[in-house]
Amino acid sequence: MELVTAWRPSVPGIAEVFHAHFVDHAYPPHVHDAWTLLIVDEGAIRFDLDRHHRGAAGASVTLLPPDVPHDGRAATGDGFRKRVLYLDTTVLDAGLAGAAVDRPGVDDPLLRQRIHQLHLALDAPGEELEAESRLTLIRDRLRGHLGRHATQGPPARGVAGGLRELLDARTREGITLVEAAALLRCHPGHLVRSFTATFGLPPHRYLVGRRVEQARRLLLSGRRPADVAAEVGFHDQSHLHRHFVRHVGVTPSRYAAHGGVPKTLPSAR
Question: What backbone torsions phi and psi does residue 20 show, to the nearest 5 degrees?
């Protein structure tokens, strides 16, 4: 059975807390606009990150950078149970992204324990100061693992980067390929090929993923799915429903209904 609990805590730097148990659900290639800090409590996950085969399980911690395509699926027929923190880009520097792509898995029992403790603090009303303190320790430890491999930032992306900026600026209303090509002064076919080769997924999938990300935030703030669909750029509620289930694993209504603090959390390892 697919189970999801998600909520937005009142802790600066944490955009969303996401707990899930999946057996059959497989994530399509997508990107997030936040850092994904993941621990697996049961089972194992297989995923591709920037077209490299990776995995997550047991005592390891997984950190996925923003704007880098990845997918995900259970490594066995038993499924997996995971806890995720989506961290704002203010928490970790953009220069760490390359190191996270090269080394998404971190074998650090203390780091994993601190992440578990942060989830417990986020589950306890009135413990925002503890949560902020634990997040600071986690951030510093992640920087210690990845900082020595940091770069000076992503390289120039040419017309592909220009198209991504257009899609980010016009997520709701969208943009036609012909219009984008005219603005960027290149052939539409070259634009699609360049974007796909640079970012690992075609422009239309990138745009759908951005809309789903925005829908998640609005649903957790209490907005109705029908209103959210129109606000983020989907044609109607059924259009949102189809893509949301594919990306998140549950319907928008169930996702919104399960928003809030989970009743139970797994014990420490």
Answer: -150, 150
**pLDDT of res. 83:** 97
Which run of H or E residues covers position 19? Answer: strand 14-22
Q: Note the pLDDT tens digit of each residue in 25-75.
A: 999 999 999 999 999 999 999 999 988 899 998 889 999 999 999 999 999
Note whether 15 and 132 are same-domain residues.
Answer: yes
Whichever domain contains 219, its CATH number is: 1.10.10.60
Task: Tell me how far apart the alpha carbons of residues 128 and 175 are, in angstroms, rounded to a whole number.
Answer: 41
Share of the chain above pLDDT 90, in %: 81
Q: Does position 259 have pLDDT exceeding 70, yes or no?
A: no
CATH classification of the domain holding 26:
2.60.120.10
First to last CA, the chain: 24
- Nearest to residue 32, comparing CAs of 86, 94, 93? 86
Which residue matches tokens 């850092």? 35
For residues 68 and 175, membership in a common domain is answered with no
Residue environment code for 155-178, b if the CB has 16+ CB neighbours within 10 A, otherwise e: eeeebbbbbbebbeeebeeebeee
**Domain count across the chain:** 2
Global confidence as pTM: 0.86
Q: What is the DSSP letter of 148?
A: G
User: Of 67, 33, 61, which Cα lies nearest the Cα of 49?
Assistant: 67
> Is the pLDDT score of 156 beyond 90?
no
List of residues 6+ apart from 72 with CB closer than 8 A: 26, 27, 45, 46, 47
SS3 20: strand
Residue 151: what pLDDT?
53
Q: Can you tell me the distance from the alpha carbon of 240 to that of 172, in angstroms, rounded to the nearest whole number?
A: 12
